[in-house]
């Protein structure tokens, strides 16, 4: 019997890791194996899941492929990782794969047709997690109407709007769309976003809403899509391309000491998002006088912070933040701003 795998895709900060934490917490005894892919040099998402405090959520259950989208690592990392999970004495009941927010899901799903794994695993479904307030603000295109007109003439426009293309590719590959952070929109705005998304999706794809990634595992796990069998019928802006890379984006890590006031750091993060077009900041911060590690996640100027666990005795108490944006970020200036 094939083991089902669920691919969770979605733009930066949409709530993919939050959804996974919810699925882990409500697994009801099922053995879930996680493959976490991040764009950047610091394994933030993996650390956030390990530090979640959920019983049974430990390093043995989490495999991370950093630095590049999963599809780029198929030959030397992704397939061996899948085989490792399948060959364990206690095979997982379900594999959950969190793709990088900048990754194209179609090449990843196509990898499940490789002979080494096709007979042993199936893609139960692709879930696209969407940031409801970001989409409501039209963040993925300066002029959505103009983009739609261009697509009507040419279904594969150039890379002048890479964020919009990544977003569109994630939607077009989805079997289920999770409109997250729905509580941050009023009913009228939420209906508008759902209507806009519905017009882009395949007829059978449903849009469901969530708050803090709370989606019933009975809905998320068990779609039965066998997406690898029909993946060629799902269009992508990058069909026909041999390589899929992240030349449109870059990331770097800023390390510094403990901060006295996290609110001041909030102001710095909001300022660099405004002044340098930074898309995402995430990481861990040491706070003076606090025994616990402070998690920081920012999407543009919107910032979320919380304490997740006590610093380990042998763990250096330092702050480390991953900064992600389109290629051309002014690294030195951004570092100076963050460090104050």
Describe the structure.
The chain has 340 residues and is α/β, with parallel strands linked by helices. The chain has helices at residues 16-25, 44-50, 74-86, 105-111, 115-118, 132-136, 144-153, 162-172, 187-200, 217-220, 227-230, 262-276, 331-339, and strands spanning 3-10, 32-38, 62-66, 94-98, 121-131, 176-180, 206-209, 249-256, 278-285, 292-299, 302-310, 319-326. It has 13 helices and 12 strands. The strands form 2 sheets. It has a 7-stranded parallel beta sheet with strand order 3-2-4-1-5-6-7, with helices on both faces. The chain has a 5-stranded antiparallel beta sheet with strand order 8-12-9-10-11, with helices on one face. The longest helix is centred in the C-terminal third of the chain and has 15 residues, at 262-276. It is globular. Residues 67-75 and 141-161 have low confidence and may be disordered.
At CATH level 2, the architecture of the largest domain is 3-Layer(aba) Sandwich
Given as residue ranges, the uncertain stretches (5+ residues, pLDDT < 50) are 67-75, 141-161
Shape: globular
Mean pLDDT: 79
The CATH topology of the largest domain is given as Rossmann fold
Rg = 20 Å
Name the CATH superfamily assignment of the largest domain.
P-loop containing nucleotide triphosphate hydrolases
Number of domains: 2
Overall structural class, as computed from helix and strand content, comes to alpha/beta
Number of helices: 13
């Amino acid at each position: 019997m094939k083991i089902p795998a669920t691919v969770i895709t979605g733009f930066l900060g949409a709530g993919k890791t939050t959804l996974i934490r919810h699925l882990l917490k409500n697994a009801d005894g099922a053995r879930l194996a996680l493959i976490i892919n991040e764009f950047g040099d610091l394994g933030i998402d993996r650390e956030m899941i390990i530090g979640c405090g959920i019983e049974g959520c430990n390093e043995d259950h989490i495999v991370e492929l950093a630095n590049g989208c999963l599809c780029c690592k198929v030959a030397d990392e992704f397939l061996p990782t899948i085989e490792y999970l399948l060959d364990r004495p206690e095979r997982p009941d379900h594999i959950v794969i969190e793709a990088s927010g900048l990754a194209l899901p179609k090449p990843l799903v196509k990898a499940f047709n490789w002979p080494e794994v096709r007979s042993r695993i199936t893609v139960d479904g692709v879930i696209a997690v969407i940031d409801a307030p970001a989409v409501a603000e039209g963040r993925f295109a300066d002029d959505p109407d103009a983009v739609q007109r261009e697509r009507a003439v040419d279904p594969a426009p150039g890379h002048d709007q890479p964020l919009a293309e990544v977003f569109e590719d994630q939607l077009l590959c989805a079997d289920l769309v999770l409109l997250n952070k729905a509580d941050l929109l009023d009913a009228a705005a939420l209906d508008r976003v759902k209507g806009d998304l519905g017009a882009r999706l395949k007829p059978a794809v449903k849009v469901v809403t969530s708050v803090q990634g709370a989606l019933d595992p009975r809905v998320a796990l068990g779609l039965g899509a066998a997406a690898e069998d029909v993946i060629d019928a799902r269009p992508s802006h990058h069909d026909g391309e041999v390589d899929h890379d992240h030349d449109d984006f870059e990331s770097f890590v800023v390390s510094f000491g403990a901060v006295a006031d996290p609110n001041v750091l909030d102001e710095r993060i909001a300022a660099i998002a405004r002044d340098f077009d930074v898309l995402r900041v995430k990481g861990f911060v040491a706070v003076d006088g606090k025994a616990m590690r402070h998690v920081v996640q920012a999407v543009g100027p919107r910032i979320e912070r919380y304490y997740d666990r006590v610093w380990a005795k042998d763990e250096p108490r330092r702050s480390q933040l991953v900064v992600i944006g389109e290629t051309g970020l002014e690294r030195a200036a951004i570092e100076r701003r963050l460090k104050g």
